[in-house]
Amino acid sequence: MTLVSLARVALLSGAAFCGVLSSAMADENAPKLGPNATSLPEETDYLRQNSAPDYWAYSPFVKPQFSSSACSIAAVTAAVNGLRGLPKLAEDTVLTQTTLLERLEDSTWAGLSAEGGDGVTFSQLVEYTDKTLAALDMADYQVETFKPTTADEATLEKLRAILAANESTAEDVLLIYFNQGVVTGDWDGPHVSLIGAYNAAKDRVLILEVDQEWYIPYWTPVPVLLEAMTKPTSAEHGVLENETGGFVHVKRAG
Asked: pLDDT, tens digit, for every residue of 143-153?
């Protein structure tokens, strides 16, 4: 079955597919990234001139999602690996997406993340992040959410404040649930990845993509990010219809 055929099956079945079929559904002559995104190799000045603690803490652990519906498990795995860091002992392995699913023994998340699965809602992303922290004995961390409903100036300023605070330390991490196509100019559907850096001077944010069959990390303007969070998922995505996004913020408790 071709990628285009798979894409049509996904639309008919309501599967989320976490963005990985995006290029199959686009004009074959369209650019890889639209006007709202710039690939990291094209925009390196911020990382060269600033400490960017989140980028260095989390980017080594961001691995490709293991299926076309596994963006949530890929993002959560990268987040907790970045918080915990590289294991100290030679015999200890780095946590993988499949190992995390085995640890949780959660058949629902496994099914949603399997090939052809529906993908997760925002509330499910929060739930599974909480379950992950519990399963890994990370009781010193907690989950907070930011789920904007409007894209007005007040919300935009709150978003910038969250990004600025997060950029100051690698002791917390932001998972983002967003409409990938608003940013990339391609596939129109919900997706999960990590925030890698925030350039306040240019009002741009770096997204560490788990959809690595099609993308590498890219920068986007913060107003575009807010638009991507608040755009409702369209009807062809079935159970995810009208779903909107936001941040799942993992931070120290207390």
From this structure: 999 999 999 99
